[in-house]
Design a protein that fits this description.
Layout: H1 2-26, E1 29-34, H2 46-52, E2 55-60, H3 63-73, E3 81-84, H4 87-92, H5 103-109, E4 115-116, E5 120-133, H6 157-172, H7 180-193, E6 211-214, H8 215-220, H9 222-225, E7 230-233, E8 240-247, H10 254-266, H11 271-276, H12 293-303
Parallel strand pairs: 1-2, 1-3
Antiparallel strand pairs: 3-8, 4-5, 5-6, 5-7, 5-8
Helix pairs in contact: 6-7, 6-12
């Protein structure tokens, strides 16, 4: 009888230990603050949750709201990872410290992600496209035509600042241009002079204007601007905006945040996965005009 009781006690102890060991694993989670992802988008990370046993929660907020929250809460911020849709969002948060990522971890776990601006990492790109009605007279094929021949608008002007910064960089480094500053000012003036107000779609009407916007924004607004005769043009050498991520200083779930970044690195060229999130791989479209995001961020700062 004593042996039976002793055996039962041992089993009970082992079972309790197994529960204690499993409990921290079951409680592991990751809270992502994002200006383009919504709580429902956590479903796209099901494979990460299943493999790493980490629950993903998404808090949707604008970059300026992230900044206010982090400034107020300091090291008690309730989210762990910042995941933003534009370099303009990175610029908004550039004075906010983010977690240092060691070179050892970058080399071993993040070889496909490019480090920018104080431990921010590129997660994908988003080309700027032109979209218009096929049966209209508005049929541009290049960004420059918006400075001379057509009236244009955009539902997302902050992202257009990224495009303008890239144009500025190009003119500044054009050795064949005898007066790059004058050419740049003329380009910018023409773009401004041909810009009109964006018309918000009503309940039963669609937007029919010529639009300049990122491809992800176009997909996001497709229900509001979609028409059978609307076409989308990606210029021959498109400018691109970039998605980026960074870990919050002293994040509560720091290990989970690092695991997510490793997961993203593994899927950095996984087009089917990225397509669900409306993100293009960094390496896609070799014709893209690549300008270092670091240079773009510097120019964005100068423009303020």
């Amino acid at each position: 009888m004593r042996q039976i009781l002793l055996f039962a006690c041992i089993l009970s102890g082992l079972f309790a230990c197994s529960i204690d060991e499993a409990r921290p694993l079951a409680n592991k989670k990751l809270v992502i603050a994002s200006d383009f992802l919504y709580p429902k988008d956590a479903k796209y990370f099901a494979s990460f949750e299943k493999e790493k046993k980490i629950k993903v929660e998404i808090v949707h907020m604008r970059a300026d709201s992230m900044k206010l929250r982090m400034t107020k809460d300091q090291y008690n911020t309730k989210f762990d990872l910042l995941f933003v849709k534009s370099l303009s969002s990175v610029k908004e948060l550039e004075d906010q410290p983010v977690q240092l990522i060691t070179e050892g971890f970058v080399k071993s776990s993040l070889p496909s992600l490019q480090r920018i601006q104080e431990n921010w990492f590129l997660a994908g790109k988003d080309p700027f496209v032109l979209t218009f009605l096929k049966d209209s007279l508005k049929k541009p094929t290049a960004y420059r035509e918006l400075t001379t021949n057509y009236l244009w608008t955009s539902p997302d002007f902050p992202s257009i600042e990224v495009l303008k910064a890239q144009v500025t960089f190009q003119f500044q480094h054009d050795k064949k241009n005898k007066d790059p500053n004058k050419s740049m000012k003329n380009w910018m003036r023409g773009l401004k002079d041909h810009r009109v107000n964006y018309l918000e779609p009503a309940k039963n009407t669609k937007n029919t204007q010529l639009l300049l916007l990122t491809y992800r924004t176009y997909l996001q607004l497709s229900s509001q601007i979609y028409a059978k005769n609307r076409t989308v043009v990606i210029p021959e050498k498109p400018y691109c905006d970039y998605f980026a991520m960074a870990i919050v200083p002293q994040a509560r779930n720091y290990a989970s945040a690092k695991s997510f970044m490793s997961f993203w690195n593994e899927n950095a060229e996984n087009k089917p996965f990225l397509r669900k999130l409306r993100i293009s791989p960094i390496s896609s479209n070799s014709q893209s005009l690549y300008i270092s995001p670091k240079e773009i961020l510097v120019l964005l700062k100068e423009r303020l």
